[in-house]
């Protein structure tokens, strides 16, 4: 046995992220004007001569070339143009054109099937009415033989016109030693037609009672199955609505500054580092960094976050979002298939096409299905011939045909992918990106959710909440001193102090001899005073007397604030408390999780007092405090050992190992960080509601898949024996092949329709 | 009646042999790539031999408008690619370990196999 698991990891191929990963130096260009295969060498060598290019290889069939190296798209395009061809940056695969093309192809196929259906039913329905109400479909006189012969020829014409795809498909797969739905339909309708023709030509070889023709069955089955397929195409189209909506977000043109002029160009021609202007009400065409201007931008279509976001210089903007109020000039940082939107689309498509493990059994069954049904059909015919009442031949033919026709491997095969398609799309609409089917399935089973405190439950950016002056300086005075000291520090708490001083427009001085004491605080000389700023430990080590104010500090800590002491020349100057505010909707979102029966656990590196205060405020009863970053995964493992299916939510950067170890890792993003590698699920908005939404959608999808699989199993498990005539000895019931055809045609349509019900699912019950 | 029963059983034996036991002809890669047409309910060629440890490029050309044919799934590698109609679509595979790896449509009706040795 080879090691398949290892293998599959080894071979993991994720084209959707190829551009997003480490290979940011990979470029893909589309070449125009390359008419012959010999152009390939010319273009490749032209590209290889561009400084920085390490590799260039062209795919002639797709007219695309992939280039590796530290080089700009502009230089590459220039090189191709110099060689005499046109080139442009490759767009996302799922551009609107491609989608339209697919829709047109589907539409054409739909029309063809409807036409074929009309012809087939045009013959089948009158024949069936004749058989049911007017006359017998039997052959006894010569006149009847001639009449039925004509009908038989007409049926053959229908088979060739309306059902040719079944017969060609069946034959092609037969010679390839495989069998599919076409095989079943071709065999079923072919048997019925052939038997009827035998009755017409050689009535003598079958008993008188069995001289019945089944031309109507052949025509009806072909017509009904064509109809089923046509309706299925329509229904399938609706399952990809979410992706269509995402693709529709892409802007078509961009206004770019070229040679000092503003020009409107197709979005495909926007290059990295281009300067792009967006006016109020316009879509932002590509990702970039704002150079000038101020505006609010509606990012709800990507993040699900309804509040517009303020943007000014240095802010990041994302393609596909809408500029609301002001004009922005920004520098394009990611274009073509590297934009956040393109990556979201590619990731959603990838996930939509991936299968959760729940579908595996159905796949295994589907693989053996058709030959098994053929064997059952033969066995059923034999049983009727041996034990059936007269006319045994007719019963044998009817039962074999019905078995072949009613069996529907498609419903089994479609059950899972259709629901995944709709479910993953639905999640994307709520700003939740699910990496694959496996993640979707596991997310539905989560029993415990670990939430990292900082940046997940809280905003992640601490703010100064309280300043308690203890000596001569006032609030502004101590803040100025503390901020001056902390200017050089990169600690998040330090930044909050500096930020707060800036808000109060305090002018900061300079610091000498700055020294950061890890885990304690900082020291330095400001205005010829020796300042110490840090925690209790630091004060104790430097013998600063803080005993009088210890209680006050502890009270602050109990309110989830982090107290820090500022001392000058060995004497305490002030207490400054910093806190990381809890996100406005964390409490409600956590309640939603708890209502869904999920054990919510908080994890933080902070001290117990702060942890407890935050946990109390958001209604979490269980928490791990003072957890070092490297120990986070141990806590995940601890819950897993208790038998929990553990979800872990974090920012995806500091807690990558814990996210990877958890059964499902959720990364809370900020809209642009779409493809956080370590996460199974990326929440594009900061709100924890995304988490509850993700779990709600995954549960609804899995429920839908189970309904589909159950329906498909029961349908086949009940339909095939009934078609074989199992009920006949007890109730005298034998299905007609026409009913079987209708049942089969609508079974797979039912699966697709049920999957479409998921579109109506609303995850936000807050 | 005996003859009919024997014929029936023979037919079953033939079905088992033809669809499950028989090992059909296989195709080799040409310079690491092969073009597979998706048409009339089958992949052609459907059985492809690949040397272990070598990457492979499978160029799918779908000429079948049926929606069933629109996605090709390599279950073992977690790959599933949409195949646009009448356009080449490449699936690049990393070097593989020996084994049999099926590729199918979503409904498992189109079936092919990579034989890595």
UniProtKB/TrEMBL annotation, chain A:
<keyword id="KW-0479">Metal-binding</keyword>
<dbReference type="InterPro" id="IPR027256">
    <property type="entry name" value="P-typ_ATPase_IB"/>
</dbReference>
<dbReference type="InterPro" id="IPR023298">
    <property type="entry name" value="ATPase_P-typ_TM_dom_sf"/>
</dbReference>
<feature type="transmembrane region" description="Helical">
    <location>
        <begin position="734"/>
        <end position="752"/>
    </location>
</feature>
<dbReference type="Pfam" id="PF00702">
    <property type="entry name" value="Hydrolase"/>
</dbReference>
<keyword id="KW-0067">ATP-binding</keyword>
<feature type="transmembrane region" description="Helical">
    <location>
        <begin position="117"/>
        <end position="134"/>
    </location>
</feature>
<keyword id="KW-0597">Phosphoprotein</keyword>
<comment type="similarity">
    <text>Belongs to the cation transport ATPase (P-type) (TC 3.A.3) family. Type IB subfamily.</text>
</comment>
<dbReference type="InterPro" id="IPR023299">
    <property type="entry name" value="ATPase_P-typ_cyto_dom_N"/>
</dbReference>
<dbReference type="InterPro" id="IPR036163">
    <property type="entry name" value="HMA_dom_sf"/>
</dbReference>
<keyword id="KW-0812">Transmembrane</keyword>
<dbReference type="Pfam" id="PF00403">
    <property type="entry name" value="HMA"/>
</dbReference>
<keyword id="KW-0187">Copper transport</keyword>
<feature type="transmembrane region" description="Helical">
    <location>
        <begin position="146"/>
        <end position="163"/>
    </location>
</feature>
<dbReference type="GO" id="GO:0005886">
    <property type="term" value="C:plasma membrane"/>
</dbReference>
<dbReference type="InterPro" id="IPR018303">
    <property type="entry name" value="ATPase_P-typ_P_site"/>
</dbReference>
<feature type="region of interest" description="Disordered">
    <location>
        <begin position="1"/>
        <end position="20"/>
    </location>
</feature>
<feature type="transmembrane region" description="Helical">
    <location>
        <begin position="365"/>
        <end position="387"/>
    </location>
</feature>
<keyword id="KW-1133">Transmembrane helix</keyword>
<dbReference type="InterPro" id="IPR001757">
    <property type="entry name" value="P_typ_ATPase"/>
</dbReference>
<keyword id="KW-0813">Transport</keyword>
Automatic annotation (TrEMBL), chain B:
<keyword id="KW-1133">Transmembrane helix</keyword>
<dbReference type="InterPro" id="IPR028096">
    <property type="entry name" value="EfeO_Cupredoxin"/>
</dbReference>
<protein>
    <submittedName>
        <fullName>Cupredoxin-like domain-containing protein</fullName>
    </submittedName>
</protein>
<feature type="transmembrane region" description="Helical">
    <location>
        <begin position="6"/>
        <end position="23"/>
    </location>
</feature>
<dbReference type="Pfam" id="PF13473">
    <property type="entry name" value="Cupredoxin_1"/>
</dbReference>
<keyword id="KW-0472">Membrane</keyword>
<dbReference type="InterPro" id="IPR008972">
    <property type="entry name" value="Cupredoxin"/>
</dbReference>
<keyword id="KW-0812">Transmembrane</keyword>
<feature type="domain" description="EfeO-type cupredoxin-like">
    <location>
        <begin position="12"/>
        <end position="116"/>
    </location>
</feature>
């Amino acid at each position: 046995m080879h090691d398949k698991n290892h293998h599959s990891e080894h071979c993991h191929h994720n084209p959707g992220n190829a551009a997003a990963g480490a290979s940011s130096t990979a470029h893909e260009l589309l070449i125009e004007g390359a008419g012959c295969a010999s152009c390939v060498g010319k273009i490749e060598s032209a590209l290889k001569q561009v400084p920085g290019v390490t590799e260039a290889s062209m795919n002639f069939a797709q007219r695309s070339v992939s280039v590796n190296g530290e080089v700009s798209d502009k230089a590459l395009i220039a090189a191709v143009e110099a060689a005499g061809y046109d080139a442009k940056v490759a767009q996302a695969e799922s551009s609107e054109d491609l989608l339209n093309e697919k829709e047109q192809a589907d539409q054409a196929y739909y029309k063809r099937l409807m036409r074929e259906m009309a012809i087939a039913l045009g013959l089948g329905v009158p024949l069936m009415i004749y058989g049911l109400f007017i006359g017998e479909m039997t052959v006894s006189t010569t006149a009847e033989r001639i009449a039925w012969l004509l009908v038989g020829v007409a049926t053959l014409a229908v088979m060739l016109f309306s059902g040719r795809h079944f017969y060609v498909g069946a034959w092609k797969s037969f010679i390839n030693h495989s069998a599919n739905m076409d095989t079943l339909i071709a065999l079923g309708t072919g048997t019925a037609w052939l038997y009827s023709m035998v009755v017409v030509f050689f009535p003598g070889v079958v008993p008188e009672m069995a001289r019945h023709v089944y031309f109507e069955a052949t025509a009806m089955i072909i017509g009904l199955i064509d109809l089923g397929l046509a309706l299925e195409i329509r229904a399938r189209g609706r399952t990809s609505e979410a992706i269509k909506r995402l693709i529709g977000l892409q802007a078509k043109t961009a206004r770019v500054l070229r040679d000092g002029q503003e020009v409107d160009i197709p979005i495909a021609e926007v290059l990295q580092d281009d300067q792009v202007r967006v006016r109020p009400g316009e879509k932002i065409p590509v990702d970039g960094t704002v150079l000038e201007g101020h505006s609010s931008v509606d990012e709800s279509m990507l993040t699900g976050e309804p509040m517009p976001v303020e943007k000014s210089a240095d802010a990041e903007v994302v393609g596909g979002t809408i500029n609301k109020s002001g004009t922005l000039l920004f520098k394009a940082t990611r274009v073509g298939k590297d934009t956040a939107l393109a990556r979201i689309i590619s990731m959603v498509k990838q996930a939509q096409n991936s299968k959760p493990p729940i579908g595996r059994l159905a796949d295994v069954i589907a693989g053996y299905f058709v030959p098994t049904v053929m064997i059952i059909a033969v066995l059923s015919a034999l049983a009727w011939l041996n034990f059936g009442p007269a006319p045994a031949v007719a019963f044998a033919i009817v039962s074999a045909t019905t078995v072949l026709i009613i069996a529907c491997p498609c419903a089994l095969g479609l059950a899972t992918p259709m629901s995944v398609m709709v479910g993953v799309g639905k999640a994307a609409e709520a700003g939740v990106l699910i990496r694959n089917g496996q993640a979707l399935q596991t997310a539905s089973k989560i029993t415990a959710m670990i939430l990292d405190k900082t940046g997940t439950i809280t905003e992640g950016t601490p703010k100064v909440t309280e300043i308690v002056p203890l000596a001569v300086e006032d609030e502004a005075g101590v803040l100025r001193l503390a901020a001056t000291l902390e200017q050089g520090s990169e600690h998040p708490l330090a930044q909050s102090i500096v930020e707060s001083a800036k808000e109060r427009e305090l002018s900061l001085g300079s610091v000498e001899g700055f020294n950061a004491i890890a885990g304690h605080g900082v020291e330095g000389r400001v205005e010829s005073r020796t300042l110490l700023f840090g925690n209790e430990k630091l004060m104790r080590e430097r013998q600063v007397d803080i005993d009088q104010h210890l209680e006050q500090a502890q009270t602050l800590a109990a309110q989830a604030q982090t107290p820090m002491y500022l001392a000058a020349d060995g004497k305490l100057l002030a207490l400054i408390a910093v806190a990381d505010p809890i996100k406005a909707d964390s409490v409600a979102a956590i309640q939603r999780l708890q209502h869904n029966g999920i054990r919510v656990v908080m994890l933080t590196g902070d001290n117990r007092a702060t942890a407890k205060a935050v946990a109390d405020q958001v209604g979490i009863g269980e928490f791990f405090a003072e957890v070092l970053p490297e120990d986070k995964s141990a806590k995940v493992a601890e819950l897993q050992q208790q038998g929990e299916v553990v979800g872990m939510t974090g920012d995806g950067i500091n807690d990558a190992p814990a996210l990877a170890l958890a059964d499902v890792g959720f990364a809370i993003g900020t809209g642009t960080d779409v493809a956080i590698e370590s996460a199974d699920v990326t929440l594009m908005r900061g709100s924890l509601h995304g988490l509850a939404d993700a779990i709600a959608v995954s549960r609804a999808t899995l429920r839908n898949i189970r309904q589909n699989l159950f329906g498909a199993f029961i349908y086949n498990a009940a339909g095939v024996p009934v078609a074989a005539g199992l009920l006949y000895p007890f109730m005298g019931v034998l299905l007609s092949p026409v009913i079987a055809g209708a049942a089969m045609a609508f079974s797979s349509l039912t699966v697709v329709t049920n999957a479409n019900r998921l579109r109506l699912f609303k995850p936000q019950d807050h | 009646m005996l003859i009919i029963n024997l014929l029936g059983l023979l037919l079953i034996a033939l079905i088992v042999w033809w669809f499950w036991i028989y090992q059909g002809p296989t195709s080799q890669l040409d310079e690491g790539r092969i073009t597979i047409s998706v048409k009339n309910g089958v992949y052609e060629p459907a059985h492809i031999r690949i040397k272990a440890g070598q990457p492979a490029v499978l160029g799918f050309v779908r000429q079948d408008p049926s929606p069933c044919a629109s996605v090709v799934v390599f279950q073992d590698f977690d790959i599933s690619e949409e195949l646009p109609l009448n356009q080449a679509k490449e699936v690049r595979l990393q070097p593989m370990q020996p084994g049999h790896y099926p590729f199918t449509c979503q409904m498992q009706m189109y079936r092919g196999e990579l034989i890595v040795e």
